[in-house]
Amino acid sequence: MASRLRIPNLDxxxxxxxxxxxxxxxxxxxxCIQSFIYFRRSKTDRIYFRAIIGALxxxxxxxxxxxxxxxxxxxxxxxxxxxxxxxxxxxxxxQVYVTDLLSESLEASVxxxxxxxxxxxxxVSHNIFVVVLIALTTLLTFSSxxxxxxxxxxxxxxxxxxxxxxxxxxxxxxxxAADVLIATSICVSLSRSRxxxxxTDSMVTxxxxxxxxxxxxxxxxxxxxxxxxxIWPLEFIFIAIYFCLSKLFLNSLLAMLNGRTSLKNKVTxxxxxxxxxxxxxxxxxxxxxxxxxxxxxxxxxxxKDMYAMDNVQKSPTMAITVNRHVETSSAV
Length: 332
Prior knowledge:
Rhopdopsin 7-helix transmembrane proteins, two-stranded antiparallel ribbon, membrane, transmembrane helix, DUF6534
């Protein structure tokens, strides 16, 4: 009977998992660097949010530890036993829980209609239906992923995972749906904040691209994992991609947080305080005329915090004041 067992192809099993762990380690290095930058720059952020970022970094470190242990088990401890690849090691399943917890913790803040874009959290959508829909897809992703991990323990082998493959498909598909909903709701909310001013509207476009890029990268990764698992369920290609999924989520979040300062500077350069006054030009024109009494109304504009990053949910406002200057000149 043992001779009938198919020995796994090392290129598409251990080779793929090994490459995936290398990419995961590189992404973890990016997480560490961005976390260091965040804690140096985020002195004004609320302490509970800083604590959440620290907890997410700790979870990501634990995830890499599980990945390393899994590779050590298959590559070192069972170096001369390729049939060990048929069984599920405890650490390979444990990293599923951590990935689920990490990715859903990042999406949970958005599903409650918030996304970090300033020193506070800016509202993504005022539509309760959209918020509930994002929350439900996020919950579906989390619950199906955890269920896959628990039932995977009971199955015991990679070959028997096809019995619960529907849970993996549900988790990955709902993750893609949640990312698309989040990016769409952010873009719709920002598009409604356009003022008609060319320069400030261009900043709205930049923010929309930030949202699309952040959600798009993780969506592509989830979709790639979905497709590779459907095509090669007995290979480790989908596992290699899955190793990188949580780190892409965290890198996207930290990149958005660390990019707030540069975005604020760009907005300041575009809008400044938005104020200008026409009194000098009008007064000079009035002084050159010989009318005995002239009354002129002219506007003075002062835009207030157009696209303030700390409070995106407020619509851009513009205060208009009318100054009335009366100059009297006597004809000589």
